[in-house]
Structure formats: C-alpha cells, structure tokens
Amino acid sequence: MSAKKLATVALAASLIFGSSSIAMAVETAPQPSPTAPVVKTADPAKKAFRVAMDAYKLAMAKFKTDRTAFQAAMDSFKTANTAYMGAKKVVNEAFKTAVTAAKTTYAAAIAAATTDEQKAAARTALRAAVTSATATRDAAIAALGVAPVKPVKPTVPTKPVRPTPAPVVTP
Fold first, then answer.
1. Residue 122: Cβ within 10 Å count
2. What is the b/e burial string over 39-58, where b = at least 16 CB atoms within 10 angstroms of the residue's CB?
3. 74 CB-near residues (< 8 Å, 6+ apart)
4. What is the pLDDT of residues 88-114, one digit of tens each?
5. What is the share, in percent, of the chain residues with pLDDT greater than 90?
6. CB under 8 Å to 147, separation ≥6 — which residues?
7. Residue 28 has pLDDT above 70, yes or no
8. What is the Cα–Cα distance from 43 to 164, expressed in whole angstroms?
9. What are the boundaries of each domain within the chain?
10. Which of 45, 102, 143, 164 is most buried when burial is the number of CB atoms within 10 A of its CB?
11. What letter would DSSP give residue 146?
C-alpha cells in the first residue's frame, strides 16, 4: 500500500473513533456532586393535628364503651323508674280515695247540719281527714325511697380540624 492510502485509512479511522469518544464525553458530562440530603421540617400545625387525632381516637373508643354502659344503665333506670312510679301511683290513688271519701262525708254532714256548730264540726272533720290522708301519703312516698336518677348521656368528642396550609408568598 502506498503511504497516501495508509494515511487516508488512518485519518478515516481516527475520525470514526475520535468522534465517538467526543460524543461519549458529551454524554457523560460530570454531574455536580449531591449536597447534603434535604431534610424536610415537619409543620408544627400538622404535628399538633396528628397528636389531636390520636387523642380523638382514644376519646372515641372511650365514648363507645361509655355509650354501651349508658345503654345498660338506661335499661335498669327504666325498670326501676317504672316500678317506682307504679308504687307512687298506688299511693296517690289511695290519697285521692281518702280525700274523696272525706269530701263525701263532709257533704252529707253539711246537708244534715242545722246549726253553725254542726257545720263547723263538719269542716273540722274534713280538714282532719285531708290532713291525715296527706300525712299518710307523704309517709308512704318517703317509704318508697328516693326516685331513680336518670343516667347522664355521654357526649361525643369533637373531631379536630385539619390545619390549612399557609399561603405561599411569591416576591
């Protein structure tokens, strides 16, 4: 081969291999080394919200157990209250019967009375009968004991409000 042909082949080969190495150099340009990792700072409002949500979940669990206990207490209250009111109704009916009987006796005595002393005695007898019936009723109600107390309904805890992100100020 002649020197001219050899130089052309060498030049062609250097152009082919040389251009690919330049192209590779462009493709693999050095990247800047990463700086320290970016640490996200937690928003204090979000932290507070998470804490509030945890407290809310605990309060809801307690509310559910309190509601179950309230239902049981309400059932026993209804039974006790029904029995108490039934007994009190019997006492009041006896009182009304005694007062009605005293009024009937008074009406008969007034109708038969001819003098003021007889009428005064009839009124005194009526007052005594009503006072006696009242004392009997009060004693019977006191013997029943204290009326059952209605249990207090548990209150539902309020759910915390999700914080809104702060508006971004652009210069």
1. 19
2. eeeeeeeeeebeeeeeebee
3. 150, 151
4. 999 999 999 999 999 999 999 999 999
5. 61
6. 81, 84
7. no
8. 11
9. 43-144
10. 102
11. S
